[in-house]
Amino acid sequence: MPGHGGLLSVKVVMSEHIKKVYSFYSWIYDALFGKIFEHGRYVAFHMMDVKANETVLEVGVGTGLSLPLYAKDVKVVGIDISREMLDKAELKKQYYNLSNVDLFDMDASSMNFANNTFDKVIASHVITVVPDPLRTLSEIKRVCKKDGEIFILNYTGCNNKVISGFEKFISPFRDKIGLGKHVDLDDLLRCANLSVLCERRVNFLEMCRLIKCKNNSVLP
Ligand SMILES: C[S@@+](CC[C@H](N)C(=O)[O-])C[C@H]1O[C@@H](n2cnc3c(N)ncnc32)[C@H](O)[C@@H]1O
């Protein structure tokens, strides 16, 4: 078992790997995943029910596919660890004239935001990709306001036992190519002490879960 320093360097190596992988995907991401995950993106946006003057954080904003959905009176901050994915999001920001959007190159597992900053936080197809999902969730809780809302949207496989067994089997391969590892979301939410307010299955074959949680953490 690696010690604390060892674990840290494993995470650094994993983050560098993710940056490399998404530097490649940045060119084809919208063509590959834009349509496939479009339904989930719309349902998530409606479930978020963002009001005027609220502040939203998109963790792992990627190429910014959902940025044009927000009204201009909503302050949206997107962070991502991949410069190339952010560059694509920046192009959307300019194309759609999204003066309400700010984008930052930042690691979701240690964010430079103060406690209690955002009304709503969404992590869309991110929680299975980050090296340390629990730490990322605890950061999300920290920067989300008390009683704010946290939304997790992620591919979790379909309900068919044979297919989901196969998916678990190929999980290390999926992880290697940056498409996310198998994560027991219910377990993760329990460990993060996040209680689910509501959830829906979305996208083709209902293969993704969209979960809404209330931020119950009390921070100064
Ligand atoms: C599958 S993409 C999802 C992009 C977007 N949220 C969407 O729904 O289309 C995963 C994104 O998470 C980003 N990511 C991975 N690890 C990260 C980390 N530790 N901090 C911030 N972003 C990260 C990747 O660079 C990539 O852009």
Structural descriptors:
7 strands, 7-stranded mixed sheet, globular, 220 residues, binds S-adenosylmethionine, alpha/beta, single chain, Rossmann fold
Compact summary:
This protein is an alpha/beta fold.
How would you portray this structure in words?
It is a single chain. This protein has 220 residues and is α/β, with parallel strands linked by helices. The chain has one domain (4-214): Rossmann fold (3-Layer(aba) Sandwich). 38% of the residues lie in helices and 23% in strands. It is built from eight helices and seven strands; from the N terminus they run H-H-H-E-E-H-E-E-H-E-H-H-H-E-E. The protein has a seven-stranded mixed beta sheet. It is globular and about 45 Å long. The model has no long low-confidence stretch (mean pLDDT 91). The structure holds S-adenosylmethionine. S-adenosylmethionine binds at residues 15, 18, 22, 33, 60-62, 65, 79-82, 85, 107-109, 124-126, 129-130.
* Order of the strands making up the biggest sheet: 3-2-1-4-5-7-6
Total count of strands: 7
Strand content: 15-25%
Q: What's the CATH architecture?
A: 3-Layer(aba) Sandwich
Number of distinct helices: 8
Helix and strand arrangement:
Elements (H helix, E strand, L loop, with lengths): L3 H22 L3 H5 L4 H11 L6 E5 L15 E6 L2 H13 L5 E5 L12 E7 L8 H11 E12 L5 H9 L1 H6 L8 H7 L3 E8 L5 E7 L6
The structure holds S-adenosylmethionine.
S-adenosylmethionine (SAM) binds next to helix 1 and strand 2.
